[in-house]
Design goal:
about 325 residues; 14 strands; Rossmann fold; single chain
Length: about 325
C-alpha cells in the first residue's frame, strides 16, 4: 500500500490462489516505527512475500493500522504487524473490534518491542521474525480491555505513565530507543516532576480497596514494559489473570533507589510494594491523569480494566527466538 493507505500487492511469480483457498495475510507496516527505521524493512518484506504469500500495506497516520487490520479481519485474513508495541496494539485492536477469529503475527520494528521480545520471545532477525509471523503456530493469548480499548501487554498509571508521556517527546531525539529512552524519561520525571504522582483509589475485584498517593499502579499480561522493566516479572499471558503491582509514593531519594530494582524485577518484597492477581480492577483519580496502554498514552479520571482470557490468537514459535 502506498503512503495513502492503499494496499500494495507483492509481485507475483505464482498462480493466483483459487477461491477455495484462504485469503492471503495482510502485512501492515508502520513506516514511522522507530523513527523511520521500520520503513527500511519494506523491500525485504516485499521480496519475502512475493508469489502471493501475503499483501503489504503501509499505515498513513495514527489508528490507520487499526482500520486496516479490522478490514482485513472482516475479510477473513490473518494480519501481520510490523512495528513497535504501539503498532502491534493498534493492529490487535482492529482484529478484536472485528469480532473475527484471525491470527496476529508480529515483526518487531519499534523502540521497545516488549511484547514481541519478552512475552513472545520472537526472533530478532527480521526475516526469521517474518517467517514466524506467517507460519508459526497461533497460540491463544490473554487480552486486556480498559475503557473500551484493548491491550496486549500492560496498563499503568502514575509516574510510569508520566514517563511514557515524556518518552513520546524524547523518542524524536537521536539515539533515544529501548532502555536508553526509558531511563532518560524516568530520570527526567523523578528529578523534575515527582510531585505529579497521583492520588488514586484502586478497587481490585474481590480485594480490599486502597486509596492513597501512588508512585504507580500497573496491571500486566506480559512480564515487562518500558524497554525491559520487570514490573510484574512473573506475569503469564495464558493464565487468565492480570498481575497488579501497586507502589506507594516513597521519598524522592527512595524512588531513585527503587528504580534499578524495578528494572531487574527485584522490588517485589520492598515495603512500598503490594502485588496481587486479579481479573478486574478499577483505578479512580480526582482529575484526568495519564495512563500508558502498550505503546499508547491515554488520559482519563477512571480506568476500568478486565482480562479477556485467550481472546486473541498470536503466532509464536514453539521454541521462542
Amino acid at each position: 500500500m502506498g503512503e495513502s493507505g492503499t494496499v500494495v500487492s507483492a509481485p507475483s511469480s505464482m498462480s493466483t490462489p483459487s477461491q477455495h483457498d484462504a485469503p492471503p495475510p495482510l502485512v501492515i507496516l508502520n513506516p514511522a516505527g522507530a523513527r523511520g527505521r521500520a520503513k527500511q524493512l519494506r523491500a525485504l518484506i516485499e521480496r519475502s512475500i512475493a508469489g502471493g504469500r501475503a499483501d503489504l500495506a503501509l499505515t498513513a497516520g495514527p489508528r490507520d493500522g487499526e482500520r486496516l487490520a479490522r478490514e482485513a479481519a472482516l475479510a477473513g485474513r490473518d494480519v501481520v504487524a510490523v512495528g513497535g508495541d504501539g503498532t502491534v496494539a493498534e493492529v490487535a485492536n482492529g482484529i478484536l473490534a472485528s469480532g473475527r477469529d484471525v491470527a496476529l503475527g508480529i515483526v518487531p520494528a519499534g523502540t521497545g518491542n516488549d511484547y514481541a521480545y519478552q512475552t513472545l520471545r520472537l526472533p530478532k532477525e527480521p526475516l526469521a521474525a517474518l517467517e514466524a509471523a506467517l507460519t508459526a503456530p497461533a497460540v491463544a493469548m490473554d487480552v486486556g480491555q480498559v475503557n473500551e480499548r484493548y491491550f496486549l501487554n500492560s496498563l499503568g498509571v502514575g509516574i510510569d505513565a508520566n514517563i511514557a508521556a515524556a518518552a513520546e517527546h524524547l523518542k524524536k531525539l537521536p539515539l533515544m530507543r529501548g532502555q536508553t529512552l526509558y531511563w532518560t524519561a524516568s530520570l527526567t520525571e523523578l528529578f523534575f516532576h515527582y510531585n505529579r504522582c497521583p492520588e488514586l483509589t484502586v478497587e481490585p475485584y474481590g480485594e480490599p480497596v486502597v486509596s492513597r498517593v501512588f508512585a504507580l499502579a500497573a496491571v500486566s499480561i506480559g512480564p515487562t514494559y518500558g524497554g525491559g522493566f520487570r514490573i510484574n516479572p512473573d506475569a503469564d499471558p495464558h493464565d487468565g489473570f492480570f498481575d497488579l503491582c501497586m507502589i506507594w509514593k516513597p521519598s524522592q531519594l527512595r524512588a531513585f533507589r527503587l528504580l534499578p530494582l524495578i528494572e531487574k524485577g527485584k522490588h517485589l518484597n520492598e515495603p512500598e510494594v503490594k502485588r496481587m492477581r486479579v481479573q478486574r480492577v478499577t483505578m479512580l483519580a480526582k482529575q484526568p491523569i495519564h495512563a500508558h496502554l502498550d505503546g499508547e498514552v491515554i488520559s482519563a479520571d477512571r480506568f476500568d480494566a478486565r482480562i479477556l482470557p485467550g481472546r486473541l490468537r498470536v503466532r509464536q514459535p514453539a521454541t521462542g527466538g
